[in-house]
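Internal tracking record. Fields below are filled automatically when a chain is submitted to the structure queue. Please do not edit lines marked as system-generated. If the sequence contains nonstandard residues, flag them in the REMARKS field before resubmitting.
Queue: standard
Priority: normal
Entity type: single polypeptide chain
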Amino acid sequence: MPSYPYRVVDVFTQTPLEGNPLAVLPAAGGIDETTMQRIAREFNLSETVFILPSERATCAVRFRIFTPTMEMRFAGHPTIGGAFVALACGLVADGAQQFSVEELVGEIPLRVERGDPMRIWLKTPPIEFGPLFDRRLCAEALGIDESEFADAPPQLVSAGNPNIYIALRDPASVDRAWLELAGVRNLHGGQSSSDCVFVFAPTPAGAYSRMFAPEAGVVEDPATGSATGPLAAYMMRNGLVSSSDGTSFISEQGTKMGRRSFLHVQIHGPGGSAGIEVGGSVVPIADGKLHLPE
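SYSTEM-GENERATED OUTPUT FOLLOWS
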């Protein structure tokens, strides 16, 4: 019976048992795609990462990322948590300050800020703005009043994973919001959709956020790195945060569900023209071996 080592880490936190938990298999060669999906369902975390060799000369390793129900083209907390494990397992050159990983969306550049604590930054892939959504339908889907919305239109924004961004007036409104599978489908005329719904309120520090992805098998996600770069772009477009070069802020997420997370954002170039970085810390929690049938 083949065995595969795994590690569990908490991402976007310095405190064990907070942040977003992640399972990582650092030596996943030999595991087929169907089994990867079954393993992700077994761990039943927001995502599980499988680390493989990369065929790209510019990438240190390749990540395949699965939720309990589907494979992701790109995801933030698995990228940062997977990078932390890759460094710890010697899959990346010792002392490296910059390297890239391969994901389905393409090459993801990473930057390591060494210190106490160490913080790993990813560069958000190209961001695309999509259609606007009706406020009334969004309010009905979230179970809140339309008067609780901020002065910004709900909109689809994507950096590999599409998210509907809904800005509310204050954190209390964000905490009152809730989204079930039927609510997502109502936003799309009753049809299934892989869109996630990202609800937030601007704060002095940046944003207070929650993310719902019931179609992906994630009722609520404690920390969503792939959604935080587009969040910054959406906030800049709607005047909710400065678009100046060098702007930095923090998105606090997962607090309502008892998994408080801090996602750091840095804007490079006016309006993010030189890129948007999302960074955070990682805490190791557990390690073991997964035993699979022949």
